[in-house]
Amino acid sequence: MSRALTRYGMRDVVSKLYRYRVPDLGIEFVNREYEVETLLQEHIRERGYEHLLVVTGPWGCGKTQFARALAHALDSYGNFVAIYMDLTEQDLSKVFQPLRSRVVETCMEIVLNVLGDVAKVPIQLYTFLRELSKRFRVRGAKVILLIDEVTKSLEKYGVTIRDFVSSLSYKIFEIRDELELEYLYPIAFTSDQTAVQHFLREQGKNMFTYLMWNLSKQATEQLLQKLECPLDYELVWKVTGGNPREVAELRAWRWNLDRYLSAKIGKVLPLIKLAQDLSVENYLREVVECVDCVKPYQPGIQLPEYIVSRRLIEENIVMNIDERFRKLSKIPRGEPWIGREYAFQTPIYYWILKTALETGEKPTPRKVLETIEENT
Predict the structure, then answer these.
(1) For 96-109, what is the mean pLDDT?
(2) 34 Cβ partners below 8 Å, 6+ apart?
(3) Among 211, 242, 271, where does a domain finish?
(4) What are the CA-CA distances from residue 259 to residues 128, 235, 237, 248 (Å)?
(5) SS3 96
């Protein structure tokens, strides 16, 4: 198989990636070189290998900024046309990226004058790209569409994930041929782990689900340096697991660990109460001892353990990481909060649960930190 980029082309794209500035943090993009190379060198191939890519990962792991940075890096590079669209954004002028790209102005015009709603883009992709081809030269282009929170569109217009996958997975080739594109790769991003369960069931229909993870330890240290974090980097790593949103939240608390931990404890307490009310505290203990003990996500089963499992997944505390996913990131191994099939999305939830279940009391920030110190 041929690759989307040569080694030298990849070097240029990566250098542009690092020039992207993350808006809410006010810093340059932090190391995701491995993910970019994995995506563009292994999974996005030349004509004939197109498929729908669905990318998920821990809530706050950086999927949105990764997608935006990639669109910026590929913008005007060779014959790439890379468009990022955020389906959660209400302001049309901010939906598409890169903002200064001429193609983005064309996209906004199509939404206003043809589709009427940006949420229609994923389900009317043929119309969108046909109109784009009338206004912007895409013949022979390598088109990559980065669609953030695609489930917002499906929910709004009552389209099932099964129908979306079945329709788009085959239309990719029809659209590519009719518009004479070099190739077409739609990449859908979602943090909704309940929706991910449905996407996983549809694999094999020219669609694959990809797993992106939190930042590596080295990249986390780079992020903390850029943010001038005054805390011990090793401790921040043990608490956040490299999750950029958790780091940003910690910074929003002015690096006050006690206040940050109190907020996290507040999120976990209802889960503990649910397990107590259902008399399955022992099940939670099993999950803390081995996260792979989490019961599968089965909405129809009302047994107590399955109810608690659904809450773990729906609240973005635990998620699947099994072999059904193609891995975009390297998953840290040897951590107590990461198993083979499941993982806590960030380690702080693991540490809070462990503290509460071992002491039998409402955890405090101090007790949680003591648990971390005693077990690492």
Answers:
(1) 84
(2) 216, 329, 330
(3) 211
(4) 46, 15, 17, 14
(5) strand
pLDDT digits (tens, 9 = 90+) for 141-173: 999 999 999 999 999 999 999 999 998 888 899
* Domain tally, the chain: 2
Q: What is the pLDDT of residues 266-313, one digit of tens each?
A: 999 999 999 999 999 999 999 999 999 999 999 889 999 999 999 999
Q: Are residues 181 and 303 in the same domain?
A: no
Domain end position, chosen among 192, 211, 230: 211
DSSP string, 143-203: EEEEEETTHHHHHHTT--HHHHHHHHHHHHHHHHHHTT-SEEEEEEE---HHHHHHHHHTT
Distance CA 84, CA 162 (A): 23
Q: Which H or E run includes 86?
A: strand 80-86
**pLDDT (average), residues 347-360:** 97
Q: Are residues 177 and 41 in the same domain?
A: yes
Name which of 366, 371, 374 is nearest 355 in CA terms: 371
Q: In sequence order, which residues have a C-beta less than 8 Å from that of residue 202 and are 6 or more positions away?
A: 161, 162, 165, 166
Are the CB atoms for 200 and 334 separated by under 8 Å? no
pTM: 0.93
Within 10 Å of residue 96's Cβ, how many Cβ atoms? 23
Shared domain for 258 and 293, answered yes or no, is yes
Residues 182 and 238 in one domain: no
The pLDDT score that the predictor gives to residue 100 is 64
Same domain assignment for residues 221 and 202: no
- Residue ranges making up the domain that contains 178: 7-211
Mean per-residue pLDDT over the chain, rounded: 92
Q: Is the pLDDT of residue 236 over 90?
A: yes
- 2 lies in some domain: no
Under the banding of pLDDT at 50, 70 and 90, the label for residue 1 is very low
Predicted local distance difference test score (pLDDT) of residue 169: 82
Q: In this structure, are residues 147 and 189 in contact, taking their beta carbons and an 8 Å threshold?
A: yes
Q: Are 210 and 54 in contact (CB under 8 A)?
A: yes
Residues 223 and 184 in one domain: no
Q: How many CB atoms lie within 10 A of CB 137?
A: 11
